Amino acid sequence: MPTSLLHRSVDEPVCSQTLPLDEFLTFKLMALANALQTQVTRHYIAPVTPVGLTEWRLMGLLQQHGETHAGALARISLMDKAQISRSLQPLIDRRWVLRRPDPQHARRHLLSLSEEGLLNFEQVLRQARPFQAALLNALSAQEREALTAIIAKLMQAAEDIDARAPQLRQSAFQAISPSNA
């Protein structure tokens, strides 16, 4: 039976051929993200506004970064541009997000929060802060610093792995090919 990652030596590498599914970092992070998203929606978005979590996040990006276009929102959020467009439309329909032609690019529109959109965003933000503070306060200051560093390290690793994807696929294929059996 495979050794749990928690019981491995610090210097012992994780074997890519025997890593159990329940040890996949993506599974663990998605489970945490799903739990937190449910909490966010239930406790501070749904009671205050009719929009969903994705829409609220896009409003937050517009509040934080100012007027921008959908492609930039996709890059910043690491979301699919089609999902961005679908999520923006209800905000545009409510006039919480304003859309105008980009004078620098004929096929692009610039997006910004309207005054009403900003007020709605800030209302949810006031509800969100105590919940987010409670989550962060579950960690010590040292753990919060370590978490920030770990997330940055994993984001960089994800970029590096993405660049090496063809080689990783090839090595995985070679490991399961009949000639290795």
Describe the overall structure.
This protein is mainly alpha-helical. Helices cover 62% and strands 8% of the residues. It has helices spanning 25-45, 53-65, 70-77, 81-93, 115-137, 141-163, 165-176; strands spanning 97-102, 105-113. A hairpin with a 2-residue loop joins strand 1 and strand 2 (105-113). Helix 2 (53-65) crosses helix 4 and helix 2 (53-65) crosses helix 5 (115-137).
Note the main attributes of this structure.
181 residues; mainly alpha; 7 helices; globular
Summarize it:
The mean pLDDT is 88.
Secondary structure topology:
Elements: H1 25-45, H2 53-65, H3 70-77, H4 81-93, E1 97-102, E2 105-113, H5 115-137, H6 141-163, H7 165-176
Structural class: mainly alpha
SSE succession: HHHHEEHHH
Residue share in helices? Answer: 55-70%
Poorly predicted regions = none
Sheet with the most strands, sense and barrel status: 2 strands, antiparallel
Spatial ordering of strands, largest sheet = 1-2
Average predicted local confidence, pLDDT: 88
Q: Which of globular, elongated, flat, extended, rod-shaped describes the shape?
A: globular
Q: Beta-sheet strand percentage? A: 5-15%
- Strand tally: 2
Overall radius of gyration: 21 Å
Beginning-to-end CA distance, first to last residue: 21 Å
**Tally of DSSP helical segments:** 7
What's the quaternary structure here?
A: single chain
